[in-house]
Structures are given as structure tokens and as C-alpha cells.
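User: Here's a structure from my thesis project, written as C-alpha cells. My advisor, Dr. K., wants to see whether a designed sequence matches the one we expressed. Can you design one independently, without my sequence as a hint?
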């Protein structure tokens, strides 16, 4: 099912043995358009700590009770590698995170999740560990020089990108701003952007497949898209209170001409 990523912000995170806090943000990969981490607000428990949780470590969200199950214990989370709340996520930190939790590296392999079809399959052969540290991490070795190449880390915050203006490459017209992202709650791949077209007549929200994003200007806080302003203006209206079903997704991709899927660089 396709779901809004803005909706789970504030959902309770339920670990194996107790609640750990609330969902505060998502970090997504701007190359593969996949959610790589959920950011947990644990301020009432781990003061001053920023905690990341991989989609491989969560169960299916309960949309009715507003809870997200986390397949870890509080002790595991507390003893995970500390992260500077003001620093960007480096490849070196991701490596340490994966070693600690015995997770495969998603950036090794040909798919969005490396050699695994879904994040849940990255831990399918492992039992959820109750001990705080795995004795024999099963992550592949990574050359030290690769860990220094932080320029290859493409992680961005959903909260950061929300509000970015959207401009058509065709004629330089600004057609609105990003207000949400729509992701598959099984694969955690981002399929669409939700745009508020307040700069166009008859303000409303519309969806745009991520395949139409040409580039992101992180300096000017702007997304450049490869469709014209008329196509965006006349796109089917999006109701953020309703999940996007397969019929709506089909209609949307038919409307935009079914752009070819984005490949890994």
C-alpha cells in the first residue's frame, strides 16, 4: 500500500519490550528514492540522542492505532553507535550501524536494497536478537577508502525537503512546493511527491511520480522536474487523508505517460 510519509510523524515506536519514543522524520536516498532510516525522537528516554532505525528493523505500521513496531529491544537501541545530532550521516557511520545490528549493506549489490528484494528480507534468516551486540557480524567487509567517500552518501531529510519549490525545466515556471512523499510501506521506496500548487490558479494538491524529478538544487532548495506546468496544473487532485490505491496509481502513471523507472548510477 502506498502511504504518506508525513502521516507517521508522531506515531509511537513500540520496541519488543517497551515504547521508545515517537517517529520524528525519515531519511531518504535521493538517488534511489528509498527510505533508508526512520528518525526516532527518544528525548524522554535517551536525552540528547538521535536514534536511527532501518526499515529492516520495523514491522508493518498500525495505521489505526498510530503505532510502528520496532523489532529491537530498548537495550539494543541504547547501545547502538552514537550519532552526532548535528552531523550528516556518513558512510562510516552506516557501516558501524550495520555491523552492530548485523545488517547487510544496502549499497552493495544491484538493487535498491543491495542483493535483497525488500528490507524485511535483510533479516528474514535471522532471529531477532535479544542480546545487545551480535557476536559475529555478518556484514560484508568494506574497504576503508570507501568509508571515507561521504560524497556517495545521498541521505536527505523529509522534513528538510518539505517546502522545497518545484520548477519545470521546460520553461522555468515554478509550479508549487513539496509537501509530502508517498512511499510503499513494504518496500519503502518513494513513488511520488505530493505538491501544493498554491502558485497556480485553483490551489490544490497533486501527485508527481519521482521519475520526473530531473535534479535537486540543495543550495536554492528547489526540485527541477521534466514535465510542463500545464501537466502539473491539470493532474488528478490528491486527497492526503486517503491512501493511494493501485487504481489511483495506475491512473496517475497513465496521465504522466508512465515514465521509465530510474536506474542506479
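Assistant: Designed independently from the structure alone:
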Amino acid at each position: 500500500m502506498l502511504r504518506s510519509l508525513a502521516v507517521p510523524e508522531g506515531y509511537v515506536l513500540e520496541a519488543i519490550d517497551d515504547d521508545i519514543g515517537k517517529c520524528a522524520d525519515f531519511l531518504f536516498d535521493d538517488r534511489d528514492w528509498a527510505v533508508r532510516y526512520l528518525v526516532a525522537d527518544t528525548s524522554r528516554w535517551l536525552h540528547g540522542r538521535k536514534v536511527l532505525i532501518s526499515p529492516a528493523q520495523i514491522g508493518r505500521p498500525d495505521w489505526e492505532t498510530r503505532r510502528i513496531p520496532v523489532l529491537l529491544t530498548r537495550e539494543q537501541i541504547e547501545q547502538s553507535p552514537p550519532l552526532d545530532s548535528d552531523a550528516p550521516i556518513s558512510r562510516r557511520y552506516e557501516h558501524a550501524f550495520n555491523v552492530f545490528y548485523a545488517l547487510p549493506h544496502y549499497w552493495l549489490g544491484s538493487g535498491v536494497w543491495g542483493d535483497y528484494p525488500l528490507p524485511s528480507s535483510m533479516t528474514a534468516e535471522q532471529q531477532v536478537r535479544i542480546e545487545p551486540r551480535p557476536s559475529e557480524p555478518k556484514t560484508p567487509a568494506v574497504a576503508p577508502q570507501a568509508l571515507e567517500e561521504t560524497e556517495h552518501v545521498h541521505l536527505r531529510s523529509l522534513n528538510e525537503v518539505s517546502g522545497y519549490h518545484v520548477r519545470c525545466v521546460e520553461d522555468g515556471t515554478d509550479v508549487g512546493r513539496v509537501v509530502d512523499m508517498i512511499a510503499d510501506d513494504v518496500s519503502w521506496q518513494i513513488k511520488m511527491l505530493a505538491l501544493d500548487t498554491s502558485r497556480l490558479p485553483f490551489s490544490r494538491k497533486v501527485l508527481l511520480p519521482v521519475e520526473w524529478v530531473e535534479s535537486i538544487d540543495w543550495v536554492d532548495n528547489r526540485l527541477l522536474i521534466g514535465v510542463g506546468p500545464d501537466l502539473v496544473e491539470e493532474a488528478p487532485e490528491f486527497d492526503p487523508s486517503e491512501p493511494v490505491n493501485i487504481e489511483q496509481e495506475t491512473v496517475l502513471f497513465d496521465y504522466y505517460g508512465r515514465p521509465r523507472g530510474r536506474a542506479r548510477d
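When you compare it with your expressed construct, this may help: The CA atoms of residues 192 and 210 lie 5 Å apart.
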